[in-house]
Amino acid sequence: MRSPSTTRLPFHQPKNATRGGPIFAGRETAAQLSTVLPARPMIQLEGVTKIYTMGENEVRALNNVDLTIAEGEMVAVMGASGSGKSTMMNILGCLDAPTDGRYRLDGIDVAQRSDNELAEIRNRKIGFVFQSFNLIPRTSAVRNVELPLVYAGVRDRGVRAGRALEQVGLGDRQKHLPNELSGGQQQRVAIARALVTDPAMLLADEPTGNLDSESSLEILRLLVGLNDAGRTVVLITHEEDIAAFAKRVIRLRDGKIVSDQTQHKRMQIAQ
Question: Is the pTM here over 0.70, yes or no?
Fold first, then answer.
């Protein structure tokens, strides 16, 4: 194969739900009392279309896509080059807006927001993890993790950044520069930076693409652990062995979802 403790997200109960489930013949069973209500939607795409104009030609990168991802899911989005996978990532990450349709992120309709509003939503709601790490070269790990907090105007940046690094197992590497860290450690710094604002979801674009097999497993172990603790994770990948760790795999072709499968037995990572 190529190349964690977090705060559990709150449980949301529908207004018309009754704790414990229905009661039959005046008796409550243990199964009824343990009824699990469905998680609330974190991502909702409704009829999303994205059209790019290239000269006189129009390219329909996404074509009337409907998709719902619930809070706490770990989903892999797959597709070949030209499938619409990158466009999907850009829209989910509020880096681009759909030509038509609606996108709701954590209950917020983001489809028609201004650039400034989208920037604020990205900073508060989305933690990005990229293939190339995107760390500032001559800046310590803790300062790199602080950056989203600088943009948000947070004061206790150092404390929060330090906690995020401890969360990914780098509490003793806070003062190290990126060139003093391995590739896997640099990606963990990037994940800490993504987590430091406590976002609604992590959006990871080929997060193991620049790593060797051992470092890839470290990053996947971390992402799976974050998801097991309640964090919503969306993986953009073209690798089947990476998607095997997700709970659900969505496949795109020609701008449409052609497969949406739940993986009841996702791949496990030996500790």
Answer: yes
- Domain-embedded: residue 56: no
pLDDT in tens, 37-90: 568 999 999 999 999 998 889 999 999 999 999 999 999 999 998 999 999 999
Query: Exposed e or buried b for every residue in 62-88, given b needs 16+ CB within 10 A?
Result: bbebebebebbbbbbbbbeeebbbbbb
CA dist 63 → 48, 84, 113, 231, 257 (Å): 7, 9, 21, 29, 9
In a domain, 211, yes or no: yes
Half-sphere exposure at residue 152, Cβ-oriented, CA atoms within 13 angstroms: 21
Task: Find the distance separating the first CA and the last CA of the chain, reported in whole Å.
Answer: 17
Q: Would you say 64 and 7 are in contact if contact means Cβ atoms under 8 Å apart?
A: no
What residue numbers bound the domain in which 142 lies?
Answer: 72-96+115-262
Per residue in 157-181, pLDDT (tens digit) is 999 999 999 999 999 999 999 999 9
We report the CATH number of the domain holding residue 91 as 3.40.50.300
Question: Is 67 a member of any domain?
Answer: no
User: How many Å apart are CA 105 and CA 42, to the nearest integer?
Assistant: 6
- Adjacency order of strands within the sheet including 256-262: 126-129, 201-205, 232-236, 74-78, 248-253, 256-262
Which pLDDT belongs to residue 14?
A: 34
d(CA 262, CA 58): 34
Q: Is the pLDDT of residue 94 over 90?
A: yes
User: Is 224 inside any structural domain?
Assistant: yes
Distance CA 17, CA 65 (A): 30
Determine phi and psi for 172, rounding to 5 degrees. -95, 10
The tally of domains found in the chain comes to: 1
